[in-house]
Design a protein that fits this description.
4 copies of one chain form a homotetramer.
Chain A lengths: L16 E7 L2 E6 L4 E4 L2 E4 L11 E3 L5 E5 L3 H6 L10 H11 L6 E5 L5 H10 L4 E5 L3 H13 L6 E4 L12 E6 L8 H7 E11 L2 H13 L2 E15 L6 E2 L2 E3 L4 E7 L5
Parallel strand pairs in A: 7-8, 7-10, 8-9, 10-11
Antiparallel strand pairs in A: 1-2, 1-6, 3-4, 5-6, 11-15, 12-13, 12-15
């Protein structure tokens, strides 16, 4: 068997971001360093992780094994400080695929919030693409910047501390993502910033917001590709006892995907 | 306003793949050429599209405007020839985000089918990454190759005409995607092909398949991150008449996301 | 074993309403008579059913067995002539249980439509209770009367051919069921017709209608007990291939259950 | 306006069961008596309720108004002591409507549990029908008996403290309701107890139980009418902020509705 993939699996080094995983409810993102990391089942001297490979385990002082993983974007986002409600992975994943966002794209975000979508967009457009994100509440922007820094994605993100109802500084972007309470106010500015045929995604918790957003999009040169809600049911897969989980998230936000029709611009 | 995005919006040229869009049910992928393109509302001389910009429209001989868009991966996949049932966008988008697949990744697919997931993976890993895909039914492989060629993604995809129950030719890949009727038979080979901590996604229509896959994963060195079903509700956004659509897709497949735990290998 | 239930199972007689059942898609309600009944797999001389017991089968002229069942209300309703869209069993069943409608109740319905809810209410309140139903479109009322007659429930239903926006003729009813396009216009009249603490159920397809109905209920002396949508997933139970059906009904109507608060009246 | 409904709204008397309602989370079932009833917002002298009418309010010692309602079956069931997990109203309501259970029916229940379904069946068949219920765990039976007593339905319920795998004492019942961990073991006994064409409802939390139950029903003379799951989404109806609730019940049980085919018996 020849290793067509990477020549060799990576060895973990000091400074690497790692996910320590005990179970779905107990998992942590941290950096390999000379620190001691505490869990409720004992501690780990983080430097002992250096030299191991991803997928291996480390034992806590109380004998609890923790799997060591390379964090995915979704893991890192889950560990973000959250001064605001963040978008759910189910909605982010859906929107990214519908937007068609890919490596090399230039995309614009309005409503940085805690940076969950920002990080996801940055991961999708790297290494050559870029994310321009706007947030007018300085305390959120600060938290988002720290989160993006932690995710190692700062080089592909530009933060703007402003409310761009007057217009964005960028033009000809492939996509605009709007996650604000009044997304309809950003439709005209989004239209001007988008390249012809460019995509817009809007997230709206209430049906009233969805209605206003759809109305604004239709009247300002967008085709609505779809307005959906994504429901996620988790299953318990115990052998002989397969069943959906007893509780689920009932609603997060409606996701609207629209596409700019060129009309001069 | 400076154009920080692309310097200039692209002008459509002969040879470009375009999406001609009338409405959600009537849209077509074609290539700009000297051909005449027929719709039920008249035809378009495709060469008249050259020189236009994406987002602009072209008029058919019967006066029906068609918007011209740069096709997203999801648009191209929707236009694929399908000798087999294909995965749904809702499931592909979910899996890609959970796998964390990104530019530069090497990923492996078992069960190419019509190439819907193949194209989506290829789009996510390009330009530096690669997709290795296995399919043992030659007629499906042929259709998939034509589809991937149409999508312009052939350079990042390697096709294998074999059933890899004995093992894959690749190693240290970041992710394995399994879309076969008996995915549990691929778990051991997948484990060996994956880098430590690598991700696996499996798609299973029935609860019985899900149960067997989960059992196999647990017994062969995987952590099950989650087993879910993604339900998508589309909404009609007519002003004053907002409501979910009357019909919806009730079920496609359960999506299982698992992660390899290193155990020597 | 002593037969505590009924002394003897009923023998089918001429004049009885029967359900002839081939499979979930092919089933018919008819009356045992001297008629010949045609199916796509041969005919049945209906008088040959007399003397059989429910649950037994009859063979068509082409050898297709049909099970003979005593029709439930839901079977009869499914066979109704439908000049209008009718409520779905999932919504009717939910509302009846939430309303607490039971034998002996007097209930009021606005918007008879094809009589699906009327029949369900009549079945629930019989033999001592009564349903008063209002419909201002004569052609619907006529169809509904024929449907209720077929269901054998005419003795517990009174039909009113009028739009009761001015008020109902009845008072002190236990429940009012509103199934009209503008249910908020019936809230005040409903309040006056209801006994203190009486229940109201409203069915609204759009979120805009739901919002107006809820607003009207709150401002006119009702407590909203709940506003819900009922989603029904059917499963295929083939052994070894258990799975939800591929298609499902995505939306019918929101069901609002409210309760009158006494304020003088 | 003539009072066609009841001659007069009822006046509440000592001994009546009442629902005291503050809001959806704070509501209590109690009996009008000389007792003092305590809430976290002050107390009520219950005898002051006598002489009022349903739908009116009573004020607590701290000035909190409580609406006084005549309890529906669903309210009483919600107040039951529950040594066991009980069926959800969404599932009970669905099953009752599908079973076609109505006044005068004789029905059989296996797995009394806390009596939630028992009470709902009793309410549906009263005053002339009857419910025969089996429970082999004495502590559950005792709780169920007290609950049914509280609901005022004891006269239409017969309790059996036994596991009827050998057979039920009743015959020719219109319906059998099975709510046990291994419902397939009750299929043969249920078939024998049912009248020809009689209905069976089974509740199963896992897909494995559903599969076994369906298999058993098919092999022992039943037609499966349907196997479903009922999903209930609650909505917040605040004006201008309409949206589904953030959390929902993800899964309770699959409901199977089957019908006995006569084969001699």
């Amino acid at each position: 068997m020849s290793a067509v993939g990477r020549a060799l699996p990576e060895t973990i080094e000091e400074g690497n971001l790692v996910l320590l995983y005990q179970d779905p409810k107990r998992k942590w993102i941290t950096t390999v360093s000379k620190q001691r990391f505490h869990t409720h089942k004992g501690f780990v001297e983080l430097e002992t992780i250096a030299g191991k490979k991803f997928g291996e385990s480390v034992m806590t002082s109380m004998g609890q094994p923790l799997a060591i993983f390379k964090p995915r974007t979704v893991d890192i986002v889950e560990s973000f400080d959250r001064p605001t409600q963040i978008l759910y992975p189910k909605d982010i994943g859906y929107a990214l695929y519908q937007l068609g966002t890919k490596s090399g794209d230039k995309v614009l975000e309005v409503g940085t919030g805690s940076g969950a979508m920002t990080a996801s967009l940055a991961s999708a457009v790297q290494p050559e693409g870029h994310v321009y994100t706007y947030e007018n509440r300085p305390e959120f922007l600060e938290a988002a910047q720290a989160n993006i820094e932690k995710a190692g994605l700062s080089s592909v993100v530009t933060f703007h501390n402003s409310d761009p109802s007057e217009g964005f500084q960028e033009a000809n972007v492939e996509a605009v993502i709007v996650d604000l309470g009044d997304p309809w106010k950003m439709v005209e500015a989004s239209r001007r910033a988008l390249v012809g045929g460019g995509m817009l995604a809007g997230f709206t918790p209430t049906t009233n917001q969805l209605e206003k957003l759809a109305e604004s999009l239709r009247s300002r040169g967008f085709l609505i590709i779809e307005a959906v809600e994504v429901l996620l049911r988790q299953l318990k897969t115990d052998a002989g006892k397969l069943r959906p989980e007893s509780r689920m998230v009932g609603h997060t936000a409606y996701v609207t995907i629209a596409r700019k029709i060129q009309q001069g611009n």
